[in-house]
Amino acid sequence: MKTGICLLLLWEMCLGMNTSSVKTRMPEKNKEHFLSKKQTFSISEEHFHHKNIPKPFEVQVPLESTVYNVTEKSTNFGFNLYRKIAMQHDNNVLFSPLSLSFLMAAFMLGTKGETNNQIVQGLNLHLLKDKENPYHLPALFKQLKENITANEEFILQQGSFAFIQKDFCLNESFLNLSKEYFDMEFRSVDFNNSTQAKEVINQNVNKMTKGKIQELFEDFDTHAKLVLVDYVFFKGKWIHPFNARLTEPEFFHIDKYRSVQVPMMFKSDKVASTFDENLRCTVVKLPYKGRVHLLIAVPEKEGDYVSLEDHLTAELVELWLRNMKTRKIDFFLPKFKLDQNYQMHKLLQTLGIKNLFTNQADLSQLTDQMYARVSQVIQRAVIEVDERGTEAAAASGSEMTAYSVPPTIRVNRPFLFMVFEETFKTLIFMGRVVNPTEL
Ligand SMILES: *[C@@H]1O[C@H](CO)[C@@H](O)[C@H](O)[C@H]1NC(C)=O
Ligand SMILES: *[C@@H]1O[C@H](CO)[C@@H](O)[C@H](O)[C@H]1NC(C)=O
Ligand SMILES: *[C@@H]1O[C@H](CO)[C@@H](O)[C@H](O)[C@H]1NC(C)=O
Ligand SMILES: *[C@@H]1O[C@H](CO)[C@@H](O)[C@H](O)[C@H]1NC(C)=O
Ligand SMILES: *[C@@H]1O[C@H](CO)[C@@H](O)[C@H](O)[C@H]1NC(C)=O
Ligand SMILES: *[C@@H]1O[C@H](CO)[C@@H](O)[C@H](O)[C@H]1NC(C)=O
Ligand SMILES: *[C@@H]1O[C@H](CO)[C@@H](O)[C@H](O)[C@H]1NC(C)=O
């Protein structure tokens, strides 16, 4: 399979229950009654297979904020979160702001009050929130997803699973809404049998990620009632691929003192780039077929990426793109593969999303179970960048006969990268390569 880039990403969320208090509130003899109460909804097999849930109401999207506003705000959320991750991790970084936004946005439907405000604010969407219509933002996310996943020249799949304890009660309208706006797939699991629960979840994840992630969970908290898994899968082809025959081992300078040998890809080709005089970095844009590109920002001096990270905003990226000039260059880029996972619940708390993870969580739109809270959010992402991406892999080799020596851009020191979808300027992935020989 020829792929220029291949990414995927997974989420794990556990809805932790304060079991001691649940037990006191739900003595065994009342349980039947509790579960069959009118307003609560017990998951039944038919419901999982129900495909066409009708729209519960008409969605009015006010003109003043659009998908473009959402992606701009989400990009800045991505950069804010990136800085939090970068502060706590010295090495390579990779995550998907897009997927995290989708996952947390689904929780806007399940929460109320301060818990909800914190999510909206943490996602940097507070200026877009429509007080009259709580479905305004979900509708924009839905529109975004439908649009960017409909492209035929690359594959972008994003989705979410909800694995629910067999006897756990969810608010039926939450169930319908999360399916309607965020395409959540529901599966019933018996977390009491953690062996079986693990099997069911891993099987589903394995299937949706086409085998890229086979083993997501090692073990479960047997008190878990709801586990959400979210994935993104992107497969694109370079418009102008690298010729694998020109890839050679070369040194990559991690810092002043350390170097590693990496497979360095090469092409002599027309490439769009710019040099940022203020931040002293070179920015290169490599397009995939369809409307997606990889943006690479390389500081002039190795180890200088920290000041660059501090300045990242959607506006700065816009400025870079506006200043880009396309010219023929000799371009060197290391092949790399990253595989990262983060305890996002800890990072989200530093962005102000706190109540969701405590007993103060107001998940009353999701369940009427007392003391429900989210105990874990884990994201796993994998990216592979290599020469491949098209059948015409040798195309750039012929350009080697140029008479004048073109300028050279050599990515042989730590760099930042972003994967943007261009129609809505959506930041799909964001990361940093400090050492290409590590995952
Ligand atoms: C569970 O809820 C009870 C009742 O509010 C509280 O006293 C207790 O500290 C909680 N336990 C945990 C582990 O959060
Ligand atoms: C949405 O974006 C448009 C165009 O950039 C801008 O004019 C408008 O003020 C934005 N709306 C909000 C609510 O930020
Ligand atoms: C996506 O949105 C853009 C801009 O609004 C539009 O031109 C394009 O046709 C849409 N594509 C799909 C598949 O909906
Ligand atoms: C949820 O969807 C089901 C199946 O379409 C429907 O029968 C039910 O009325 C919906 N419930 C609510 C509360 O919207
Ligand atoms: C799971 O275990 C709990 C307590 O051990 C029990 O009350 C509940 O009925 C069990 N659920 C299922 C589906 O077996
Ligand atoms: C748990 O599930 C596994 C696999 O489905 C099954 O073999 C085993 O008997 C179950 N254990 C219990 C205690 O139900
Ligand atoms: C379910 O959620 C809806 C809003 O999404 C709310 O109006 C309703 O009261 C909730 N039902 C229960 C039983 O909590």
In short:
One of its GO terms (cellular component) is extracellular space. The protein has 439 residues and is α+β, with helices and mostly antiparallel strands. Helix content is 28%, strand content 32%.
CATH topology of the largest domain: Antithrombin, Chain I, domain 2
Average pLDDT reading: 79
**Helical/strand content category:** alpha+beta
| Low-confidence runs of at least 5 consecutive residues | 1-55, 389-403
Indicate the CATH architecture of the largest domain. Answer: 2-Layer Sandwich
**Largest sheet, strands/sense/barrel:** 9 strands, mixed
Per CATH, the superfamily of the largest domain is Antithrombin, subunit I, domain 2
Features:
single chain; 439 residues; Antithrombin, Chain I, domain 2; Alpha-1-antitrypsin, domain 1; 2 domains; 9-stranded mixed beta sheet; 6-stranded mixed beta sheet; binds 2-acetamido-2-deoxy-beta-D-glucopyranose; Protein Z-dependent protease inhibitor; protease inhibitor; Serpin_CS
SSE arrangement:
Elements: E1 5-17, H1 19-25, H2 31-35, E2 40-42, H3 45-49, H4 67-88, E3 93-95, H5 97-108, H6 113-122, H7 136-148, E4 155-165, E5 169-171, H8 172-182, E6 184-189, H9 194-208, E7 226-236, E8 248-253, E9 259-276, E10 281-288, E11 292-299, H10 305-311, H11 314-323, E12 325-334, E13 336-343, H12 344-350, E14 372-385, E15 408-410, E16 415-421, E17 426-433
Parallel strand pairs: 4-6, 12-15
Antiparallel strand pairs: 1-7, 1-14, 2-5, 3-17, 4-7, 8-9, 9-10, 9-12, 10-11, 11-16, 13-14, 16-17
Signal peptide: 1-16
Organism: Alligator sinensis
Protein name: Protein Z-dependent protease inhibitor
